[in-house]
Structure to design on (401 residues):
């Protein structure tokens, strides 16, 4: 047995490849955004000019909602990256909490104000293609980046990754999808984000696991 | 730790220094063995050693996640704790699937299956036949059949993919069968 461990050490140390140490979570988040911002900017501009979509209402409520959505995406991405580094404190799980609460509060306040005119839960499914076009690439790029880390808490990492991709995707979708019914936004968009995070969390172990990481490092 | 600090060794490991890596792994292995044995006192020596190897493989897989400006031991112990939890889950799963049975004298009703002595033939001849195999097939048969290594272990030890190992073992077995038929 000990001989086998000695053989393993010998095997691992032979032909050792140099590796680039992973950067800080916030630098990796910037790199993630650096890949996605040009893509989403082009996609949003094309959808506006080629698709002739209406511009969103640029009022203070919309701007505040967008700021909190993008901050939720950024802090969730940082937290997801931090969760793949062994030895880090778990306080990173709280990072997206404040912007997410701010996001919900902004929508809740607008929802309360618009409730006097009657609440409608009807949803325009036309936003689905926008969600796919603008939400899928952030999720795929993030998953690829997260797979370079250690799968210590795959469920949490996947849920945070989904929240990050959804926050960023939602920010972009709102630029081309001029819906102003906040009840609908809370139920469909935010509800959808929570469902996505829960589903990702359930599949976290399949997406991020030691077997896959070992295969990548081989 | 006897010589260089693990942080300094790990920095060299990330640059691809094999000697530093061998030294680091040799330094941490007794520590891991001791801690795992203490924390999982119910495991036998083989299971402890399996866990030590699992931690070493995991360290190797995620060596890029080590930040050279941070201490090494918390990083190592976080990986070890994670692998221990997985190891206990695996241990529990295996335990749940295994059924203890009494040792039986007879395995099958057929008389041929119950001979007390089996004729293994000449072992030296078999070793000579293995020596005559092509190198890849010889390595595969040695690791998979003689040393009884798992596919994963053999793959890690030889650098061959599991698929290539399976093919090499299959071919080696066929070659050996042919050799003994012709003799």
């Amino acid at each position: 047995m000990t001989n086998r461990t000695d053989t393993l050490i010998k095997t691992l140390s032979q032909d050792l490849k140099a590796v680039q140490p992973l950067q800080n979570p916030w630098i990796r988040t910037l790199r993630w955004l650096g890949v996605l911002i040009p893509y989403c900017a082009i996609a949003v501009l094309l959808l506006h000019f080629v698709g002739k979509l209406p511009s969103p209402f640029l009022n203070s409520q919309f701007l505040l909602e967008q700021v909190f959505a993008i901050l939720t995406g950024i802090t969730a991405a940082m937290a997801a990256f931090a969760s793949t580094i062994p030895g880090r404190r778990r306080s990173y799980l709280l990072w997206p909490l404040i912007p997410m609460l701010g996001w919900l509060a902004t929508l809740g306040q607008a929802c309360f104000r618009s409730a006097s005119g009657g609440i409608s839960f009807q949803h325009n499914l036309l936003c689905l293609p926008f969600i796919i076009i603008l939400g899928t690439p952030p999720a795929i790029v993030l998953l690829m980046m997260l797979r370079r880390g250690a799968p210590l808490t795959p469920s949490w990492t996947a849920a945070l990754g989904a929240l990050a991709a959804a926050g960023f995707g939602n920010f972009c979708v709102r630029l081309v999808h001029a819906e102003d019914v906040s009840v609908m936004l809370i139920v469909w968009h935010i509800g959808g984000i929570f469902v996505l995070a829960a589903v990702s969390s359930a599949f976290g172990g399949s997406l991020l696991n030691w077997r896959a990481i070992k295969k990548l490092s081989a | 730790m006897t010589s260089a600090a693990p942080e300094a060794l790990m920095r060299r490991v990330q640059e691809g220094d094999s000697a530093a890596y061998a030294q680091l792994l040799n330094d941490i292995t007794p520590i891991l063995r001791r801690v795992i044995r203490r924390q999982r006192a119910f495991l036998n020596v083989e299971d402890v050693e399996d866990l030590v190897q699992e931690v070493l493989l995991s360290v190797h897989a995620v060596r890029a996640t080590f930040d050279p400006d941070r201490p090494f031991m918390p990083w190592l112990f976080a990986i070890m704790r994670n692998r221990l939890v997985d190891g206990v889950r695996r241990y529990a799963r295996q335990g749940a699937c295994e059924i203890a049975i009494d040792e039986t004298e007879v395995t099958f009703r057929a008389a041929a299956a119950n001979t007390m002595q089996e004729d293994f033939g000449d072992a030296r001849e078999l070793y000579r036949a293995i020596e005559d195999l092509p190198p890849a097939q010889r390595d595969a048969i040695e690791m998979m059949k003689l040393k009884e290594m798992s596919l994963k272990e053999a793959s890690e030890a030889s650098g061959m993919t599991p698929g290539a190992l399976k093919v090499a073992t299959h071919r080696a077995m066929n070659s050996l069968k042919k050799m003994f038929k012709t003799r």
Observations:
- The mean pLDDT of chain B is 83.
- Residues 72-97 of chain B form the longest helix (26 residues).
- DSSP finds eight helices and no strands in chain B.
